[in-house]
Amino acid sequence: MDEFASIRHWTANRQPASWQHARGVALGIGDDAAALDFGNAEDGITGDKRLLLAMDTMVESVHFSERTMRDEDIGFKALAANVSDIAAMGGVPLHAVVSVSVPRAYGAERMKRVYDGLYSCAERYGIAVVGGDTTSSPAHMVISVALTGAVEAGLELRRSGAKAGDAVFVTGPVGMSAAGLHLLQHAGASRWAEGSQRLDDNSYGVLCAAHQRPAPSVLAGRLLLKSGFCHSLNDVSDGLSSEAWELAEASGLRLVLEERLLPKSGSLSTYAASVGVNPLEWMLYGGEDYVLVGTVLRESADSVKAEFHRHGLPFYVIGRTEEGPPDVELIPLSSRMDGAGAKAPRGHRVKVEKKGYNHFGT
Question: Is residue 133 a known part of a binding site?
């Protein structure tokens, strides 16, 4: 099957032309470039709007392997990572272009499964897939996705808007994806080889799902934008620590997090204890949770939380912002001991290391 036949095999009859037209697609897959009627896309935004553009790449052996991801999961997650970036701006995802570099060993049917996962994510979030590029690869599969979105003009949520005295929040538990990755990497090969079912047959299946099929927080981002109380926003892709530092540096202030307030799932705690890992390590530095972290006007945090709950969404206040040079600090649990073995005083703070996933870190 040549390049063009492969593309048709992966993408044909996936999305009705009438649906793509409603999403603002004038010309989709089949020409040298897509043509988009962005202004008339049915995206729920009235009045002036701005175009958002995000891009993300996943590389085999860096972001995924056969041990940790099914082919369908790879496609789903490649698009979901971009959806999360649009969500972090308060926007609505619209159009995707997909570039794949495919090793000969993959074959057309395996790549079709990758596209099955990608289109599953596209269907969930109302995204029109409008084109891309295909090349061969000598060894590893690479998939890059660029995604457009729309947001009300001038209302984009940024990292740089936090104000001293804000409440710091997250829109869901953190550390789940990192725990799931650890579980998948350390599970016996017989539990995962040859396309066997994911580890859904035990109490840790939710951790595996968090890593393989993340759920970007689009509705949460829209609620935060519409509330008018959200001052800054970021998505947790590289770890809560890394994203908190980005907010602190962009806004020029200090974030103070409280360990007792960090949302932690029971499955995460149980699994961490079973393998001798401090769950806080995954929660702060794990990444790929794709929940949102940001700041809101402290006086309005309760009303924002109530609005989230009306939509069936979680919302956790986990700290506050303070004036001062950019920094991220953590108030540990009261039972935490200091380096000498003595109980730390009430309100004691520790500096949160500026680390998380970094492709060029040492």
Answer: yes
